[in-house]
Amino acid sequence: MQFRWSRRLAAVAAALALTALGPLVPSAHAQTEIHWWHAFTGRLGELLDEHIKKFNASQTAYKVVGAHKGNYSETLNAGIAAFRAGQQPHVLMVFEVGTATMMSAKGAIKPVYEVMESSGLKFDPKGYLAAVSGYYTTSDGKMLSLPYNSSTPVLYVNEDALKAAGVDPKTDLSTWEKVGAVVDTLKSKGHACPFTTAWQSWVHLENLSAYHNVPFATKDNGFAGLDTTLAFNGPAQVRHVEMLGKWAKEGKFIYGGRRNESGARFRAGECAFFTESSAGYAGVKKEAKFKFAIRPLPYWASVSGAPYNTIIGGASLWVMAGHKPEAYKGVAALLDFLSSPAIQAKWHQDTGYLPITRAAYEKTKADGFYGMEPGTDIAIIQMTGKEPTANSKGLRLGSFDQIRGIIDEELEGVWAGKKGAKAALDSAVQRGNQLLRRFEQANR
Amino acid sequence: MDTKVTFDHKLLPYLLLAPQIAITIIFFFWPAGQAVYQSLFLPDPFGLKMKFVGLSNFTFLLSDPHYLASFQTTAIFSFLVAFFSMAIALWLAVMADRVIKGSETYRTLLIWPYAVAPAIAGVLWLFMFNPSIGLFPYALKAFGYNWNHVLNAGEAMGLVVAAATWKQISYNFLFFLAGLQAIPRSVIEAAAIDGARFWRRFWTIVFPLLSPTTFFLLVVNVVYAFFETFGVIHTITGGGPQQSTMILVYKVYADGFVGQDLGSSAAQSVILLFVVGLLTVVQFRYVERRVHY
């Protein structure tokens, strides 16, 4: 017994000694590690790992280490908690909803334009698609975070369902008026689920507002200051929500959940129309056993000037403050690598996310990808059709994750027939404004 | 001759208690103190600045009708969970106590769900009742009933109550069964000889003698419904639809960890602390009086 113990002790001591000596042993390359926390699993996680692998193989000075930290909210939380503990990663993936939170954290982040400038690498903010990078850029054109995965909502159509109801599958579906007529026909033919949607606030309020050039919030949707107030209870939004509420009541709009739960129904062929992110393409393509098509998000013909452009969803990469200068050089090299046309074009084609640079878009065109996969360019055309206005550049609102939750709740009240559209949106605006004031107070 | 052995060390009892006290301080008093402290501030998410706001986090909460509605939701939810999980467990325990053949198997099977984590229980029930792909909604549709708990508040509440109850029954069952077996047979046999039927024996003898167990379980179940059901709510409804299943502890999480509003979240924790403290006092002060030990 005694003997065994002492042997074990010796082993422990040896292990300890090795650990202690570890840093003294010179490594072959003396690489600087760059930590990148992200929210991707499954296929997207594999593709992200591929980016890391390719970057690490492309040079020897830096080694990027990726770590999955849960879903978007959890990843942001992990980043915040790590910063509080002084253990923050170099690069943090933050969903678009967290943009205002990150922007306001002046001492916690290092803006991308600064990182790129001090690295000496060539960086041309104009090369990025304004409709994408605008969301993450200050009003005077300084890029704060690098767009990584961005998508925009489009309309998915089950053409077989239309055919079964005697509607020409190639019929014009560009406006809500026209979609409404088809939805009525589908219902009268006994279709169980003519219309459904994912991400209701994002598609039917945030994008609806941008698409029709009406404000979602004052102060240029929050871009111009923290003293912004919500404004999505205007006539255009009320009318749209009223229509969806009426559809819900008549069994034409089947509500499936706050996120993309209804996707399962559409992919199973149960629903005829489905508004969802353009990045849902890969999933639909893989599972749908029916003929489907992607159409641009419908707009209201009755709103003059519509459609403008839709806005993005997804995530961007934020550089965290508090690291050594040479690490930031590595971060700059990584961001430069991720923006390169070859990487971007492949990412766009593999995932359905938008390309972030003009060069990647041109490359995808030249590759003939849009000809082979019809409908995959609709998202880009829809986003870049018109020069973004103050109402269609994006949203920059504090506590936005919570505000979306409030919007979800109020909309559910409308779908359940408990509340009128106007009353629900008024209430959401009023409740959301309280949170905006708290955010303003905390970040002033 | 004095046979009493006494330890007249002044220090020893404290030394023996020290580990327990240390744990209580580190894991309870310290975080609770932090929550009280933080509830007076409005910090930004990254902790870069803390703004002292006095009691305004509390006034903000208490003037919010949705926060007040959350109290009601919590009360309804906790009552339903505590009542059903105890009632069903008691019934099962009484039945299992009577079973002679294979009682071991019954007991083991009834205790099993206790090993399931709340989040897993939530996912299991969600899977069965998923409006898109669930088995039960599919079956219900055959009877012409359209189950959609993502929109129907009553169905959502029913589902989270069912999941939370199902998970807690095992625990209650275990204690009730032990309680039943501790009741002296002679008392029951005496009543039987006097001609009392089973249910009369149960209500006049067994149930009153079980009251210490019932009281203990009441306290434990209320605490369970208040705090440990977080996983069930998180996986099944996330507090929705509208705010129909937004219980207090879930709101603490939603505001603090999703909304990054740590000041409000801390204030809610403090309020929750008071509510649970008050409930426990009420239970011990008024309910315990009726308990026969």
Keywords:
heterodimer, A: 444 residues, alpha/beta, six-stranded mixed β-sheet, four-stranded mixed β-sheet, 20 helices, 48% helix, globular, B: 293 residues, mainly alpha, two-stranded antiparallel sheet, 2 strands, flat
What do you see in this structure?
The complex is a heterodimer of chains A (444) and B (293). Chain A is 48% helix and 12% strand. Chain A is built from 20 helices and ten strands. In chain A, strands 1, 2, 3, 4, 5 and 10 form a six-stranded mixed beta sheet that branches. Chain A has a four-stranded mixed beta sheet with strand order 7-8-6-9. Chain A is globular, with a radius of gyration of 24 Å. The N terminus of chain A is likely disordered. In chain B, strand 1 and strand 2 form a beta hairpin. Chain B starts with 11 loop residues before the first helix and ends in a 6-residue tail after the last helix. The mean pLDDT of chain B is 90. Chains A and B meet through helix 3, helix 19 and helix 20 of A and helix 12 of B.
Which helices and strands, and how do they pair?
The complex is a heterodimer of chains A (444) and B (293).
Chain A: H1 2-21, E1 32-38, H2 42-58, E2 62-68, H3 72-84, E3 91-95, H4 99-104, E4 109-110, H5 112-119, H6 130-133, E5 146-151, E6 153-158, H7 159-164, H8 176-188, E7 195-197, H9 200-211, H10 218-221, H11 235-249, H12 263-267, E8 273-277, H13 281-287, E9 292-295, E10 313-320, H14 325-339, H15 341-351, H16 358-366, H17 369-372, H18 378-384, H19 400-415, H20 421-443
Parallel strand pairs in A: 1-2, 1-3, 7-8
Antiparallel strand pairs in A: 3-10, 4-10, 5-10, 6-8, 6-9
Helix pairs in contact in A: 5-14, 9-11, 15-16, 19-20
Chain B: H1 12-38, E1 41-43, E2 50-52, H2 56-62, H3 65-98, H4 103-111, H5 118-129, H6 135-142, H7 153-182, H8 185-193, H9 198-209, H10 211-228, H11 230-236, H12 248-258, H13 262-287
Antiparallel strand pairs in B: 1-2
Helix pairs in contact in B: 1-13, 2-13, 3-7, 3-10, 5-7, 5-11, 7-10, 8-9, 10-13, 12-13
